[in-house]
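User:
Hi there, any thoughts?
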Amino acid sequence: MPGSMKTLADWLAYVEQLHAKTIDMGLDRVRAVARTLGLAFDCPVITVAGTNGKGSTCAMLESILSNAGYRTAVFTSPHLVRFEERLRLRGEAVEGDHLLAHFEAVERARGDTTLTYFEFTTLAILHCMAASKPDVAILEVGLGGRLDAVNIVDADCAVITSIDLDHMDLLGPDRESIGFEKAGILRAGRPAIVSDPMPPQSVIDHARAIGADLWRFGHDFNVSGDKQQWGWSGRGRRYSGLAYPALRGANQLINAAGVLAALEALRPILPITAQAVRTGLALVELPGRFQIVPGEPMLVLDVAHNAHAVAALAENLDAMGFYPTTHAVFGVMADKDLAPILARIGPLIDRWYFTDLPTPRAARAADVMAAWQAQNTRADAAASVHAAPMPALAAALEAADPADRIVVFGSFFTVGGVLENGTPRLQAKHLLPGSRSA
């Protein structure tokens, strides 16, 4: 075992170079190491998969269950700023030092087995979660479902959020094949919550084939509402007069509906009160999901990084009302299909600030700008290229008027890059001391 591993940063640097590939689909290696570790959970486990909405779903589950008095353990990925965000115990991010013994345990258990960065870190986090003896564990799938490292744990309840086109090189070329991969987290005889209002047939077929207890949006549960409040109904229970979730955006209602279905399905083993539901939805927090930071100009942070999520972001931006100029800080991974992303949100953006990102997987800002120029139809739109998200945000702030808005999106790296020193509170140059109009 490496003797020089004294910090979490040491371990992360070490596991990054252990395996030749960053992604190696298949569970045999991970299962073997988990067996040696004796990895097991003595509590109900909820596993969440989906193209978009996974993080929001996990956050709402955590908030409601915490408010119901349960000790929660939540694993999500990727992180925005610090690795420790990936594991939350009783509502707080884990301390880095608290993870060291669990990295050591995985290193001892793996022997000659090679593990990818995600597999190694997932095993360490799951080991830490199980050791913390939570009342309930909430696991977010990293990629797909069927062959994801998280799927070594048998979920007592599985939630599939939205299913759309992303990671097609690994998951398949269409919604049907992607749906089949996501459906791999379902288990026989256990609740399978499908929040997507129009799921691929492959999900329904797989749930029926294995005998899962299928809960479908629009069939087994549904929502209703007006501008002030909303209601949920499903299998013999109703919630009415609910305040909208603290996470903003129309898409969050569908996520919340799936959350309430999961909690209803688990009621025999995790009973909750209506008050815990109300409080949990009202208090839920999750950075980077249509996160609006008040200021002048207004700042919007969103990790939307595929066409489906960007369409939701565009709808939410539209609903905000009029802003004289919308500035966009945008950095993205090289494997994303840029054309539908730019086509959907392009009409809303007046000035683009394309940024490089600190990962070899990212598209070069200059290449993204070239792709934008090739399909841009707005003569009045402007664009520039920047080395990192912070300088891009600084350039946007320099150009913005107080009544404008700045949208940061495209990747966890893009949003994380502007959050690395905390949440920025913006003051346009016109408002700074010493400026002519101040």
